[in-house]
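Contributing new complexes? Match this layout with SAJ.
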Amino acid sequence: MKLCVMGMGYIGIPTAVLFAQNGVKVTGVEPRESVVTRLNAGIATIEEPGISDAIKQTVENGSFTVSDTPVEADAYIIAVPTPFCDDEYQSCDLRFVKSACESILPYVKKGSVVIVESTMAPTSTDLQLAPIFENAGFAVGEDIFLAHCPERVFPGKILYELVHNNRVVGGVTEKCAEKAAEVYRKVVKGEIILTTAKIAEMSKCMENTYRDINIAIVNELAKICHTLDIDTLEVIRIANMHPRVNMLTPGPGVGGHCLAIDPYFIYAKAPKQAKLIKLARDINNSMPEFVCDRVKECVGMAPAIIAAYGVTFKANVDDVRESPAMEVIALLREMGYTVKVCDPHVKDPEYLGMYEAAEDADLALMLVDHNEFKEMDLEKLAGVMHRKQLFDTRGFVKKNPFLKVMHY
Ligand code: SAJ
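Output block (do not edit by hand):
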């Protein structure tokens, strides 16, 4: 089988190498020239456990190559970004998905399978993508087979989850779903669930919305507990001892390219009904400001020096998309504070080493729970600080004799 994967990002690359490791000849397609060059040299362009070796091995044995143009293939997997539009509802922007579909039109032949993995608003495949192929003369479900198979892997565990997770395969027709399922059977060990394209779209958006709402409730709890002077993390620890309660962890907000975006895709389709969904988004979006208010309580008005730890949207990744940590840092600077930043996962000439960032600082502010920060020598940290205090928005730093630790 020949496979063409459109989009060499966080999903496209691991998907491509996984198929390449399983006897499929894979061409990755990517417009960014530097990414094409680096991948073809066997060099990883994303941070993800195991990905470097997998790229190197599949490029060296010739099963994975990358190009800036599509090729003729038996199956196409589209894994390009779906940002939100700059409109009132932040609806789903299908620009990149549509242009990927259009760019493969000259190569698609009778019998080709086209699978879109990018997250999309419900009804996008049936109403927006199928017509692209129909208008080019292909009968979808007879000549070509179009399906939406949302990616549901967890950054940090992508290579494992691509194989072991259940896979939802939503066809425009039943035959489309069956044909797309055949493609995934080559690599997936989890259950393959056949359904319609719009159920697949809605279930994917809803999974992330469900998690976003669950994070919103603990973030709201953090605000309530702050007002009432109650220890939030202890409340959650004890509440979670109930057999049917499993509260998540509050943080500086919700980021990444999934939870912070997908709920809007549903909201934009039914704004009058999607009240809770929108409220959860608003609560999570308000967290960076709440963090800044807490910082002001700790150090007083500017000027003061803040050492900010972590800029990524979550721990142990290099991804800063929609990162609330970035927003906190920008807001603190707007408030007049000097913010020194440390993040071992992100290369930036401005970023400092772990203890260097804390020199003369009035507060160490934990925004991401990277492993490096969990292993920090707190005595050494306190030793270089001006005021020995730490505010941990992620709840991982334990009380210690060297500095005062504050949580939500
Ligand atoms: N977060 C909290 N508190 C928590 C858990 C997460 O504040 O208790 C924050 C994180 O710090 C981060 C954001 O939420 O800013 C999202 O992180 P995440 O770890 O919840 O999820 P993602 O975005 O890395 O991956 C999610 C996953 N979806 C679900 O768990 C329902 C993953 O399975 C999906 O494949 C992925 O979205 C996706 O691509 O849609």
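Reviewers usually confirm one structural detail per submission. For this one: The first strand starts at residue 2 and ends at 6.
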